[in-house]
Every structure is written in C-alpha cells, then in structure tokens.
Amino acid sequence: MSTKKILVVDDEKLIVDSLRYSLRKEGYDVVIAHDGLEAIALARKEQPDLLVLDLMLPGIDGLEVCRTIRQESTLPIIMLTARSEEMDRVIGLEIGADDYLVKPFSFRELLARIRAALRRASYVAPVTEETLTIGSLSLDQASHRVLRNGQEIELTRKEYDLLRLFMERAGRVVPRNEIIDAVWDTDWIGDTRTLDVHIRRLREKIEDTPSKPQYVQTVRGVGYRFATPEEVT
To answer: Which CATH superfamily is domain 5-122 in?
Structure first.
C-alpha cells in the first residue's frame, strides 16, 4: 500500500510543526503550506490524498481555498476552525468540505477523522444496477455521472453517495443514523448537522423547488425518504 500524502495548511508554526511530526510518526507523507495561495499551488502540484485546512489564513482564507480546490478535485478536506466561527463551518460544509474540527483539538481525534476520511475516499461501492433512473434523474454508477433532464449536474462525492443511497432505497424511509453510517462512516464522530447541510445542497441541485422537495422527502424525527418512479412520473 502506498504512503498517503496529507497537505496541512495553517499559519501557526507550533501547530504545523506538531502535526508534521505526529503525522509522520503515523506513517503519512506530510506537505506543509502556510497561506491560502501556497495551499492551492501545492494541492495542484503534490496531488495529496487529504487536506487539513485552517480557515483563518493570510492572503486568501480557508473558505476560498476550499471553494477553489473543490471545483477541481474531490480531495477530502478537513477544516480546522475556532469555536466562534460556526457560520464559517456551515459555509465550509456547503462549499464542499467533508468534516471540521474545532480548535483546540487532540491529535488522536484528528487522526481518527483523517483515517475515516481516507477510508471513505478509497471505498468503491459494489455496483448493482448500472443505471438508476427515477423521474428526471438518472445516476450512472459505471461512469459516476448524474443527469437531470438529460443534462449532467455536478455533485460532490458526498452528494453523489447520498443520491445513490436514496435512489437504491426509493420508497423506503432511511433513518438518519443509517445514512450517516452508509455515507460517512460507521464510526462517524462529527456533528450530525453536517447531514442536514448536504441534504440541503443536494436538494438545490436536483429539485425544481428545493423548499418543497419532490424527491428527497423529510420524515420528521426519523430520517428521509426518496420518491418512487411512480410518484414523480
């Protein structure tokens, strides 16, 4: 198995030095960036397997770095935030970050999140039906493409995995914990609001009226249900 490469982006020298030392001890190859522009350049040059990204950076901030990288790559991104930056965390998740960790944090918790994110990124789901079609939506598992009314729509990795899960279980209520287990990980230790953010973003891309969803229906207190072909034709 090849060594996984992690790009760590933070302008605090003590944090960078500590993470570089600790992650290398765990067997990872570590690349360091100290500002936003350097982070983008190294992400393109080094092609890391995962990005640990602080939001408060000189030059351009972590949100802009996340937005730029997500437009080019499905690279897993773990954000580092301060306790007072809840809105930034929400925005970060909306623009494509996979997880976040609030400072100060323990290295063991960060390591657990890194390992979980790398597992999810390397997992290849078994293909059942090659193409799933419900209403105007068509999901081609072989090519990893989603069409709406015949036009391809761009989904993040998590949005694609959510849609595939829902379409495979169309007509059935899927509890929140099962969604998190299937799409994030069975040992998920993050904030469950992450799911709500991703559901909202998915609706914005597949629904005609996201505030009155036809496909992804909320079952209050339980989870979500995806419409059957008969309900949307």
So the answer is: Response regulator (3.40.50.2300)
